[in-house]
Amino acid sequence: MPPLELKEIWAFRIRLQLTDKVRDLTLFNLAIDSKLRGCGLANLRDCVIA
């Protein structure tokens, strides 16, 4: 799967902001900013939720 384009990243961010999903927006921003892959984000998400 090719990496996300900048416009796709901003589209996700806007949608998460509009739906007031603060936790999901935070995890998304963290994943993008730190260049985490899906498995790394899933492991982190499990730690945060637990």
Provide a descriptive summary of the structure in words.
This protein has 50 residues and is mostly helical. It has one domain. Helices cover 76% and strands 0% of the residues. The protein is built from three helices and no strands. Helix 1 (6-18) runs antiparallel to helix 2 (22-34). It starts with 5 loop residues before the first helix and ends with a helix. The model has no long low-confidence stretch (mean pLDDT 81).
One letter per element, helices H and strands E, the order comes to HHH
Report the sheet with the most strands, covering strand number, pairing sense and barrel closure. Answer: none
| Number of E-state strands | 0
**Percent in strands:** under 5%
Stretches with pLDDT under 50, minimum 5 residues: none
Sheet/helix structural class: mainly alpha
Helical residues, percent: over 70%
What is the radius of gyration computed over CA atoms, rounded to a whole number of angstroms?
11 Å
What overall geometry do the principal axes of the alpha carbons give?
flat
Would you tell me the overall average pLDDT? 81
Give the distance, in angstroms, between the N- and C-terminal Cα atoms.
30 Å
Say what oligomer this is.
single chain
Number of domains: 1
- What is the count of helical runs? 3
